[in-house]
Predict the structure.
Amino acid sequence: NAGVTQTPKFQVLKTGQSMTLQCAQDMNHNSMYWYRQDPGMGLRLIYYSASEGTTDKGEVPNGYNVSRLNKREFSLRLESAAPSQTSVYFCASSVDETTLEGYTFGSGTRLTVV
Amino acid sequence: GEDVEQSLFLSVREGDSSVINCTYTDSSSTYLYWYKQEPGAGLQLLTYIFSNMDMKQDQRLTVLLNKKDKHLSLRIADTQTGDSAIYFCAESIEDSSYKLIFGSGTRLLVRP
């Protein structure tokens, strides 16, 4: 089925370890996004990519880096994981950044940093 | 600043109507959305409304928008146990680029 695929679904890291969360979409969407979801705080935008070759900071970018590898793929990297980065991470995509159709979300990556 | 607020929890009996409320602060919102998140899943777009509309109906869902009070509501008629989920309100902000601002979500529990 077409959509947004995130890997891995679950991950446990030790403080200071690094990892990359992968996201790919097969809907030919131009724009992609990374959100984190924390209890009682809804979704907060980490980084987004309006189009291939561009990335911009969102609301909570500190401690993260992103790469828009090509039109399909948008990865999120934690260089030195901290317990405060324990969260559920969602990747999303949209036709473009002005779409009225909203976003298509992946099923999430649940990350625990110990 | 940009802020979207929702109550955290709502419990209703199966067959009743549910009303989930949302308030937002940015008057330049262009579209407002309702998303549904089931356990262990991502967010699924339920419906959206243009900011110049007052109401939109889609089967069991009715969205009401009071632009003066910056208040958005989602009414689910004949609520079913399958409607149990977290519901997120979101607004699109016409900034240097459009992005969605989400509320914290309302957990709807439907009792048999």
